Structures are given as C-alpha cells and as structure tokens.
C-alpha cells in the first residue's frame, strides 16, 4: 500500500513541476511582448499634430488723431482733423501715412496771421516691442516725409520802430491773403500703440521735424505751416498726436519658430 501511495505522490510532483515551468515560460513571453518605444513615439507625434500653429495677423489699421479733433473745443484759434493709417508689411515693418486739414491763427508780437491748408505724410514704422503670445502692441520708431499746400492771410501787423520816441506804432488791419504756398519736411517719429479691445488700439506719438522747403509770402514769414506746426523762427518743429484706431485683419502668416540645435561637448 505504501508503495502505491509513494508512486502517486511522485507522479503528482512531476506534474506540478512541469506546470510551474510552463507558467514561468508564459510569463516570460508576456513580458517580452510589451509595447515598443516606437508606439509611444507615434502617440506623441499624433498629440503634437493636434496643436494649431501660431500665426500673426496682417492688415490695415485706420484711425483719427483725438488731440487735433478736440483741440478746437478749448482753442478758439484752431480747427483741424488728422486721419492716420498703417499697413503691416512684414513682422516688424509697417507702412504708415497721415492726412490732415488745419486752420490756425497765430498771434505774434508784430503780426497776426491765419494759415489754412491740407497736408500728407508718408513713411514707415519699425516695431521694437517683442510681444508675448497673441499680443499686438507696438513701440515704434519711424521716418516720414511731409508735404503741405496752404494759404496765409495777414490779419493785422505793426511796423517795427527801433526808436519809439513817440510811442508804439498803431496796429494796422490788413486782411491780405496769399495762396499757392507750399512746404516740405522730414520727421522722426516715436510712438506707442496698445490694444485695448478686440481690434481697437489707442496710442500717442512725438515727432521731431526738419523743414527742407518753404515757399513764403513776399513780406512776412510763415509762422505756422499745416502739418508741420509752429516754425519757431527756424527750420525745426515738433509735433504730438493721440490716436484711436481700428485694425482690419486681411490675412494671416504662420510664425516660423527657429529650431534650437544643441551642440555636443567636445570629446576629451
């Protein structure tokens, strides 16, 4: 009896060892069949393709100078309006222009005159500001060439007397008008524009002007030139504007992000 019992136990032991070896083999095969890194790479590339590329908007921006438009409310000697515009040519460069009409009466020590005319300025702006994400703000430096055609009306004047023994000369009323006058100048512009609402920008700018051509009446100087502003008895002038403008998007360009190439350290 013990002989048969020992034989049966030995038989079960052999089956148990064989089953354990088979399970170990199956486990090893399952471990070897894990996904390869290539499958994970394909998943990452699929996720990367779903991210939309970054684009910059290009179009026309048009607006008006609020400084000139509202100046007539508190300055009775001034009436004027200026329209501004720019077009984005490249990522940093903009074609820019201004068109305006002015009527300004200047009261000097010796004469009072009124300049009335139109002007146009054209040139370019360069944006020095590096925007973050989808910002479209501008800090610009630019150049302009300006041209004005206008008339001057001599309202009153006083004759200069170097020896006022009998007192100051009386003011003489003239009313004589001189037409067909022109002037040309160059200017350097510094400006800031900030996006406050969707496609709406506000900004301000300063201009330093140099008069290069000036056709004057025969008997007095142009004290004020539309577009150039006050001459200050010389060829230099300054200007200021405060604008609100609207951007009209026309098309978009994909932003090309340069690839960073890692340099390997030199082998020792």
Q: Order of strands across the biggest sheet?
A: 1-2-3-4-5-6-7-10
Distance between the termini: 79 Å
| Fraction of residues in H or I helices | 10-25%
Question: What proportion strand?
Answer: over 45%
> What is the tally of helical segments?
3
Task: Provide a descriptive summary of the structure in words.
This protein has 268 residues and is an alpha+beta fold. The protein has 3 helices and 10 strands; from the N terminus they run H-H-E-H-E-E-E-E-E-E-E-E-E. The protein has helices spanning 2-32, 37-49, 66-74, and strands at residues 55-65, 78-88, 93-107, 111-127, 138-157, 172-197, 200-214, 224-225, 229-230, 236-254. The strands form 2 sheets. An 8-stranded antiparallel barrel has the order 1-2-3-4-5-6-7-10. Strands 8-9 form a two-stranded antiparallel sheet. Residues 2-6 and 19-31 have low confidence and may be disordered.
List the helices and strands and how they pair.
Layout: H1 2-32, H2 37-49, E1 55-65, H3 66-74, E2 78-88, E3 93-107, E4 111-127, E5 138-157, E6 172-197, E7 200-214, E8 224-225, E9 229-230, E10 236-254
Antiparallel strand pairs: 1-2, 1-10, 2-3, 3-4, 4-5, 5-6, 6-7, 7-10, 8-9
